[in-house]
Amino acid sequence: MNWDAIFSDGTRDYVDPWQPKKGQTVTIRLRVAHGEQAEINLCANKNRTPMKLDRETERFDYYKIKVNLGATPFAYYFEIRSGSEVAYFDRYGVSDEVRWQYRFVLVPGFSIPDWANGAVMYQILVDRFKNADTTNDVVDNEYHYISRNVSHIADWNQPPSEFDVTNFYGGDLQGVKDQLYYLKSLGVEVIYFNPLFVSPSNHKYDTQDYDYIDPHYGKIVDDGGEPLADFDSDNHHASKYKARVANKKNLEASNEFFAEFVKEAHEKGIRVILDGVFNHCGSFNKWLDREGIYEGQEGFEVGAYVSKDSPYHDYFRFYPEGQWPYNHAYDGWWGHDTLPKLNYENSQKLCDYILHIAKKWVSPPYNADGWRLDVAADLGHSPEFNHKFWAEFRDAVKSANPDAIILAEHYGDASSWLGGDQWDTIMNYDAFMEPVSYFMTGMEKHSDRYEPEAEGDGRRFEMTMRHCMTEFLTPSLYCSMNQLSNHDHSRFLTRTNHKVGRVAQLGSDAAGQDINIPLFKEAALIQMTWPGSPTLYYGDEAGVVGFTDPDNRRTYPWGSANYELIDYHRDIIFMHRFNEPLRFGSFLFLQTDKDYLCYARFTAHQKMIIAINRSGASMHVDIPAWRAEVPDGTIQQVFVTNEAGHSILPVAHEVEHGILSGELGPHEGYVFSVNV
User: Fold this and answer.
1) pLDDT tier, 641 (very low <50, low <70, confident <90, very high otherwise)
2) How far apart are CA 425 and CA 418, in angstroms?
3) CB of 431 within 8 A of CB of 439?
4) Model confidence pLDDT, tens digit, residues 544-562
5) CB neighbours of 395 closer than 8 A, spacing ≥ 6?
């Protein structure tokens, strides 16, 4: 039996329809070697059902079976019997034993919006992208946060300081709006914004008001008040901040501006995803009001910190030793009193309000295209409630906008949330960022550790990916957020220098020293050819470096970007977007070895092969192209990157007896394609 020929997956060439409705009939297929004298069975629900030969080619036979689905998940695997030999095929691959954990699973009724499959996303931390409206800039001493008064950074190119949370560079939504043509020309299809709602920090993961876009990002149409005196830390005196963020004119103008922004983005073919921080809020939040921003302000109820009789009292968990007024004894996320944890189990009113927020921003007039959920696994005080809430959240969002996506921040196995009834997908750490980082650089994603034994270990990479990719339903995998960098981890380009540590120990300059751009370009090539939604962190395409938070939050280098790197990203993005296998096609490892990856993406009509040499030396390869259903004859090289640059000019290569042979130069990556 030719085990290398056996293949199936959950994509539409092997499951039709690949996102079935409840009660629908699906056709499931399996591929084996041509002429294989074998009995092919579909195994599900303790039943073995024979499959029938569907069609034959020179190299393969395709078997199929029709299955009538009900309303519950349908799990299956394949059994192949040839004489006394028995093989089983599941999501991990072929085996001589049944592996229940790797069964294929179809969830009737679960589907991902079509636009999200393989969509090219671009993550923006607004304060650091572009300052186009100086009238909404945070001013020095505007208010006090954590341990100091806030500051406006006048030098756009100044790297973030070690304590950066109170420093503002002035980036705003007008700056993003002004660069929509740049993003469109880059090939971006979706903007994922870090939080936009009213918040005192520059990262805004401490929400102050879920109902409004922060006027410092939007519009300040009615300014006034005064900043704090130099040594004043009492925000009751922060009259300028109060005038800006508690004035309904500014809040409503900012919401209107956001609605206009989304409308223009949509007109340019770009969707918008918001960041929802619902596990906790901020100590400035109007429901708590620890800082007195809303105390005594017309149109706002008294906060739970101020009075025990607040209508928001049950939104938070107060400890018995606390006393009002001004009760400091409340539950904070991970003990942070600036991040009060929301107490959903004690307040149906809170639950209902957050579900209202979930619907509000994906509905007219705002029409956002979905949510990214911050620390989503932490919400609530028990796993049971957490899953119940996210199921209700899904129902709320999809009822308001069926085309909206729900993706969550999660580390580790997220399968208990990815059963089709809660999240659509996740930020893909386990099956993308971490394995790619270790294989390409040997570096842990924070640059906190270098593991030389992991660097270039192709076999380890393959085994990790095979396992972790099975933790997703296929539709979830194909829209997962595949990032090399983001706001929580070091920039990938900095990881290529093998410097272990953070900016406090190493200094800002070290992040850009000894970097390896050809290696980074190969990683970006993997990103654009891997199943899922390739997601750029703003400025990565321009050569921005940085250690982990806060150094990774440097400003976009307008006027001093690495334009060759931008051109490179533009070319690989358009290759990704306009080659169907890279968005919807099957995935198959062809070969892995030391410093070497080779895999295929293919559909019934187009076959693509990706080969990566991450080492600084040349290597000869004999690629089993036949496994990707590539016929003998000419195959086109459609992309190459190496130490000299990159090219999109087509170059013909020959496949003979199913093998594509050639040389991979130092830090060289190829993409080959053939239509059949």
Assistant:
1) very high
2) 7
3) no
4) 999 999 999 999 999 999 9
5) none
Block residue for tokens 């410093």: 595
Q: How many helices (H) and strands (E) does the chain have?
A: 14, 33
Distances (CA, A) of 643 to 473, 596, 617: 37, 16, 11
For 11-53, the three-class secondary structure string (H helix, E strand, C coil) is CCCCEECCCCCCCCEEEEEEEEECCCCCEEEEEECCEEEECEE
CA–CA gap between residue 318 and residue 531 (Å, rounded)? 45
- pLDDT number for residue 298: 87
Q: Residues 422, 387: contact at Cβ < 8 Å? A: yes
Tokens 């334009």: give the residue. 563
Report which of 106, 78, 75, 105 is spatially closest to residue 93, judged by C-alpha positions. 78
CA Rg value for the chain: 26
- The H or E element that residue 462 is part of is helix 458-469
Is residue 396 classed as helix, strand or coil in its secondary structure? helix
Q: Give the pairing type, strands 104-106 and 586-593.
A: unpaired
Distance CA 82, CA 616 (A): 45
DSSP 127-156: GGT----GGGPPPTTS-EETTEE-EE---T
Closest CA to 286 of 248, 247, 312: 312
d(CA 376, CA 414): 10
- Angle at CA 622, nearest 5°, toward 617 and 623? 110
Per residue in 256-280, pLDDT tens? Answer: 999 999 999 999 999 999 999 999 9
- Strand pairing report for 167-168 and 151-152: parallel
CA gap 178, 186 in Å, rounded: 14
Pair 573, 581: CB distance under 8 Å? no
Alpha-carbon gap, residue 516 to 315, rounded angstroms:
49
SS3 letters across 246-262: CCHHHHHHHHHHHHHHH
List domains and CATH numbers for the chain: 3-109 (2.60.40.10), 119-280+336-577 (3.20.20.80), 281-335 (no CATH), 584-675 (2.60.40.1180)
Which tokens in the block code for residue 310?
């607040």
pLDDT per position as a tens digit, 46-88: 899 999 999 999 999 999 999 999 999 999 999 999 999 999 9
Which token pair is 370? Answer: 């979905």
Length of the chain: 676
Q: Which of 401, 406, 390 is nearest to 360 (CA)?
A: 401
Q: What is the pTM of this model?
A: 0.97
Ordered DSSP codes for 521-568: HHHHHHHHHSSSEEEEETTGGGT----STTGGGPPP-TTS--HHHHHH
Cα gap 483→431, rounded to integer Å: 10
Question: How do residues 298-354 score in pLDDT, each as one tens digit?
Answer: 889 999 999 999 999 999 999 999 999 999 999 999 999 999 999 999 999 999 999
Report the distance separating Cα 641 and Cα 586, nearest Å: 23
